[in-house]
Amino acid sequence: MVITAARGHITSRSQAVLVLSVIAATVDSVSMNIDVSLTIRELKDERERAGVTALLTDVLENARLNREVFITLGEVGERLFVRADSDYPVIFSRFALWSEDFEQKLTRRVAALVPHAQVDFDWGYPDEY
Description:
Helix content: 40-55%
Number of strands: 8
Largest sheet: 4 strands, antiparallel
């Protein structure tokens, strides 16, 4: 296997893995603008919605997003939901790693509080347009 790089050739698998790791680390450390949007749905009553709202408020504070994101409450038919959105793109560094961890932690915490609730993340990438 020979991969042509900017300054020569990569001739071994370990060299290729190293180069790809460096590229991935470089790309992942770039700052990105992200439209934050997530919804916690399938809540059955006001008690569940109040608990999820308090949980989401805590999670957003811990993630230092409480000043960037607002929470709204709504309903579709008899199902209630809690939504968090940003009015403008939020700058993130290492978003790919951060978002994976954030999504897992929030989903786990919501499931522990309201097992039947559904958490949907809808990150927007305004710089791609």
